[in-house]
Amino acid sequence: VSKTLMQTITIGLTLVTFLQLWSSRAFNHPRRKVRQSFVWMFIPLAWMTYGFTARLAWDILPRATWVPVFVAMAFAIMIVINIASPAYNELVLQNTPLLRRGRLASLRMLGCGLSGLAGTLLARWLMQAIPPPHNFHICFIVGPILMILSCPSVLFFRDANWQPGPAPFRPGELMVTARALLANFNFRTFLV
Hints:
74% helix; 0% strand; mainly alpha; 8 helices
């Protein structure tokens, strides 16, 4: 895998940042917690699909097939992250008292960090216990299972502050917004 390919995957997250402008409209709904939970489940389900498919068809399909499939999956996940993250942060901020937001943020980061450390230990064990390349594929099955278990936690938020927001999204607005951003020199500089 080339450095150019890895940089392309990395810059993909930046290239779809304009989708964040659509986030509040996509999730501004009385059942926004349910929408958030399902959208966040897409990420582990996408990686599980890749893991299962690669595990089962690795020797059937040509090796050159797997890099584009991985890149396509990564870009799909980047799109979901850019659409869902701002609305999730909005949900958390609207329902957390101002003086408790810092503590909540630090506890969330502590939980993410500890989960990440535990995940690396599990991944290391899997990588040693199973021969390559299937050890890599199994990690894309086991890790997402753990993430799926955390996605419904959004449903436990007490969403007392939901208010009707702007008019429903119209697909043409996305292109107008994208053109306006790309016409902005500072945004183009940010992308590079």
